[in-house]
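Sequence and structure are kept together here, with a separate record for every protein. A complete record is shown below as an example:
=====
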Amino acid sequence: MVTSTSDCTVVRFSSGALPENGRALEELHERGLLPTRFIRYGNAAARVDLVNRTMPGLRILTASYASVRREGVRQEGDLLYLCMTLTGTTVGSRGGREMVLSDGDAVLMTNEEAAWTMTSPSSVNIAGIRLPRSAIAPLVPKLENITMQRIARDTGGLRLLRKYLDVVADDEALAVGASQRLIVSHFYDLVALALGANGDAKALAAARTVGAVRLAAIKADIVANLDDGNLNATMVATRNRVTVRYLHKLFESEGITYSEFVLGQRLARAYHHLRNPLHSRQAISTIAFNLGFNDLSYFNRAFRRRYNATPSEIRNGAGAK
């Protein structure tokens, strides 16, 4: 399935509908439907599920594979490919050299030599980032010395990059031109940090991007755990490897507190549920408790302040946002 908004094109593909034969996946690349050549590996049925997001100056591929080998395909332009194995194990090979990547490791490839392969004998989740060399070269000189070198999963820039992948999975953000340009610049900086930008370049990339990316990851973490009534700043900070003080400073940089953000997200989710017919039989108290509110009176007061209407009025269509 292909969708396109603004300058961002999103392609979703699953091999589940294909016949189980060795040529089906290969033919998809030959017809221009897949960005990489896939070849069945081993005796088990090959599986490919992917989302390919393409925008000016950046392509982000996220996928899960099993029993396949991917072969590099030369493309026009001087391009870099950062290949990450998020979970599972992948064997990378080029020019007689092999490398094992697992559970967060990455490797940098170029399109100068297309003769590289990535083999996934068992199930893996991967991410691939394609970007122009010109975007990274000023920050990381001598890129040729970094290619086909394992980048360890604990590298600071790589950890942030993995977190940021979850944030940009929101296609609505990519559809907005200003957000898209900001996201592209963030990826450039994070890739540079993962590749070992140093000196002034490292300081510049960190100053421009690290705080914004960490805050985006923290917000995504909070939104994913709104139903936890015990959610607190210490828990969130620990999961995101920052101090509580730094977490509060990140929110303050946007003129909001951690508590205000959490409350706003919970109230917005409650408002959506109350207006959604699918939740029409669910008690208002159940909605509140399921969203982490431990005090129904507090929920009602906060909701009325936010929407100038009671939850019942919103449910009955008498209130307006």
In short: DSSP finds twelve helices and twelve strands in the chain. The radius of gyration is 23 Å. The mean pLDDT is 83.
